[in-house]
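HUMAN: Can I see a protein plus its fold?

ASSISTANT:
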Amino acid sequence: MVDTKDYLQWLAKAENDLKAAKLILVGEQLYDISAFHCQQCVEKALKAYVLYHEGIIMETHSLPRLNQRCAKHDQTFLDFTDSLHILNSFYIETRYPAVDELIVTRANAESAVDVANRVLEYVKSSLNA
């Protein structure tokens, strides 16, 4: 599979992840899965931003790293730094069993949805998408 270089398709996938995160919150108490989709939303949105500005798809899942790259083009991304460090923990730790399992509460998941929504909306407005 070859990833598309169309940033709008990346944003569409990011929007779908955010929709999934919100729907999951309404249903069963799968807060960890909702938080994971928030991480995915932000990852795809930040990759879309870098793709738009640099023409490359960054080969990383690290939200802080992607955010730093975006901040090279727009310092406002630095405002998301602390929130993205928290959201970043939902990438691996919510998907695999662990001895010290990360417990994601409803409040954590709601906060993750809020962060994902803010980042996605900022990226879309920055790109006039």
In short: The helical segments are 7-26, 31-54, 63-71, 81-88, 106-126. The mean pLDDT is 94.
